[in-house]
Specification:
Elements (H helix, E strand, L loop, with lengths): L1 H16 L1 H7 L6 H25 L4 H18 L7 E2 L5 H12 L5 H24 L11 H23 L9 H13 L5 H20 L5 H16 L26 H33 L5 H16 L7 E2 L1 H9 L6 H16 L9 H15 L2 H10 L1 H17 L1 H21 L3 E6 L6 E3 L12 E6 L8 H12 L7 E5 L8 H16 L3 E5 L3 H9 L3 H4 L4 E2 L2 H12 L22
Parallel strand pairs: 5-6, 6-7, 7-8
Antiparallel strand pairs: 1-2, 3-4, 3-5
């Protein structure tokens, strides 16, 4: 019995770190039919999107299929989610292209670009896996929701504009949103557009958007791309100026060890960090969303390890960085997927196509791939979310707009740096200038309330209840000190300033050094700084800083009611409306004790 328990414990440990093993041992036979059907449906989306996103990254279309296959297989072994789908992603494509251009320049050797993209995938995979093992999922919090919206909106516009020339059958030699937009307009004015290519691209885009809007359960991308291939084959559009994919390499990709020079590695590593942050955010948000719908528990750290494994696996077979895909996961879920066997079936279908029918997509027109990418870019933009920020919180709308402009005007990689920087600064701003207010009593309502919300609230003469909604640290110590001084210099100098200290979760050494002189200055003018609702860990820090004797042990209270009761007992003050004085028993303004 003991040996059996030990084996079960060992299997449990292996299953926790390698969920694919646990998935095999717990697989239910009744899932098989649904997983196979869902995998077949999913493959119809994986093929055109994989090829399209490879070109978006500046790589040959075939690498998108290689990446899809081995990304799915890697995640199936190490990923925690039953139905999450990984693969080439539209949000990563421009970032990969930007890294490759920065490393080898535009128009570089495709073989070199593939090798560097594989090295980039390996770096992203290792970074993701290490982050998962180290439980660094909180890194995803570096991108706040407004920043994410602005970043994705900027990415959507960048992708949309970059694909317009390809949609119309020509190319432009320009970098950046403005350069590409002006190049596209000049190309149209110069007559560079190919009419047949424009028709194919626009019709393909219209079919995808229409079906996704009104018939969401229909495989829109498959139908649109299939129609484009059939039309190109029947009408011979390849001979009329419409670029086509051409024959794909037959067979499986060779196992290749990614490599790069030291100078290239430095550039790739910087890009890998940015890609990892975006992929982390996308992975955790997508996993959380689908886990909530299926009743699963999110294991964020294991999800990072799973996506890291997918990147590493793809990198050894001419692949590039991958991430989770909300749209493909939704297709898998709607098709009845029950486990990662769905992704394995999708990968197997692509492998069979590469081995047995490599010419199946030779007449796939490039404008159709551009339409697939543009349709994906439209799904990245969140205009309702942007409008909601404008209506509800203008400051966060400004943050969103700044992130958008950072991506649109500076480029994708600098844009992600701007986005992360804005998020961090926004957090710091809230700590630097936190909300602070005075609390008073409102008849009929328990507790003490913000005078901004209840201007007619009652007060006790000589008593100010002050709330500071942040930990006391170096960044806001001066702000706190100046506000307390202003309260002490009010027309009716307070006897007690009671700090409603529940939001004060920390007092660092800088703030501690500020508090000592402040307490002495207040006491010199007859005012005591009293603490209520202070957490025990913070109280112990005040003790270590030697501040308790200066404050006075009798000036610490567990609740605001106790502090108010003690003040009334000592002064005899009664509640008064704003601008009124109350009759008191004895001296209403004694020296603080």
């Amino acid at each position: 019995m003991s040996e059996r328990r030990e084996r079960a414990t060992a299997r449990g440990a292996v299953g926790r770190w390698v969920p694919g093993v646990a998935a095999v041992t717990t697989y239910r036979r009744r899932w098989l039919g649904k997983d196979v059907v869902a995998g077949l449906v999913l493959s119809s989306l994986l093929v055109p999107q994989g090829m399209a996103y490879a070109e978006l990254a500046g790589l040959p279309p075939i690498t998108g299929l290689y990446t899809t296959v081995f990304g799915l297989l890697g995640y199936a072994v190490f990923g925690a989610s039953r139905i999450l789908v990984v693969g080439p992603d539209s949000s990563l494509g421009p970032m990969i292209a930007a890294v490759l251009v920065a490393t080898i320049g535009s128009g570089g050797d495709p073989a070199v670009a593939v090798g560097l993209a594989s090295m980039l995938g390996l770096l992203v995979g290792l970074t993701m896996a290490v982050a998962g093992v180290a439980k660094l999922g909180f890194i995803a919090d570096l991108l706040s929701k407004p920043t994410q919206i602005g970043y994705m909106n900027g990415l959507a516009v960048t992708i949309f504009v970059s694909q317009l020339p390809k949609l119309c059958g020509f190319s432009v030699d320009a970098d950046g949103l403005i350069g590409e937009a002006s190049g596209f307009v000049r190309g149209l004015a110069n007559g560079d557009a190919v009419p047949a290519a424009c028709v194919v691209g626009l019709v393909t885009l219209a079919i995808i958007v229409a079906l996704q809007r009104w018939l969401p359960k229909v495989p829109a991308v498959l139908l649109a791309v299939g129609a484009a291939i059939a039309t190109t084959s029947v009408l011979g559009l390849g001979d009329r100026g419409v670029d086509v994919v051409g024959p794909l390499p037959a067979g499986l990709p060779p196992l290749t060890m990614p490599h790069a020079s030291w100078s290239q590695l430095v550039l790739l590593l910087g890009g890998a960090v940015g890609i990892t942050v975006v992929s982390l955010t996308d992975t955790i948000s997508t996993a959380s969303s689908f886990a909530a719908r299926t009743g699963q528990e999110v294991r964020a750290d294991q999800e990072m390890i799973g996506v890291g494994a997918a990147n590493v696996a793809a990198s050894f077979f001419q692949g590039f960085p991958v991430s989770t895909s909300g749209s493909r996961t939704a297709v898998a879920e709607q098709s009845g997927a029950r486990s990662q066997l769905t992704g394995v079936v999708g990968a197997a279908v692509i492998l069979v196509m590469l081995v047995l029918a490599p010419n199946l997509l030779r007449n796939l027109p490039q404008p159709a791939l551009a339409a697939v990418v543009i349709a994906a870019s439209l799904s990245l933009a969140d205009l309702p979310g942007t409008a909601r920020l404008w209506r509800h919180r203008r400051l966060e709308f400004v943050v969103c707009l700044t992130a958008f402009l950072g991506v649109a005007l500076l480029g994708v990689l600098p844009g992600i740096g701007v986005a992360v920087g804005i998020s961090v600064l926004n957090v710091f701003r809230r700590v630097w200038w936190p909300y602070q207010t005075e609390l008073r009593r409102t008849p009929g309502l328990p507790g003490y309330h913000d005078v901004r919300s209840y201007p007619a609230a009652e007060h006790l003469p000589g008593l100010v209840i002050f709330r500071f909604d942040a930990p006391l640290i170096f960044a806001n110590a001066r702000v706190f000190r100046d506000q307390v001084r202003r309260l002490a210099r009010s027309r009716e100098r307070p006897v007690w300033i009671v700090l409603a200290a529940e939001p004060v979760t920390d007092v660092d050494t800088t703030a501690g050094d500020m508090l000592g002189p402040l307490i002495d200055q207040l006491a010199a003018h007859g005012t005591a700084l009293v603490w209520a609702e202070l957490k025990d860990p913070v109280r112990r820090k005040l003790d270590r800083y030697g501040l308790t004797p200066a404050i006075g042990p009798e000036h610490f209270f567990a609740t605001l009611d106790e502090a108010v009761g003690a003040y009334r007992a000592r002064t005899g003050a009664g509640w008064a409306a704003p601008g009124e004085e109350s009759p008191v028993e004895g001296d209403a303004h004694p020296r603080p004790t």
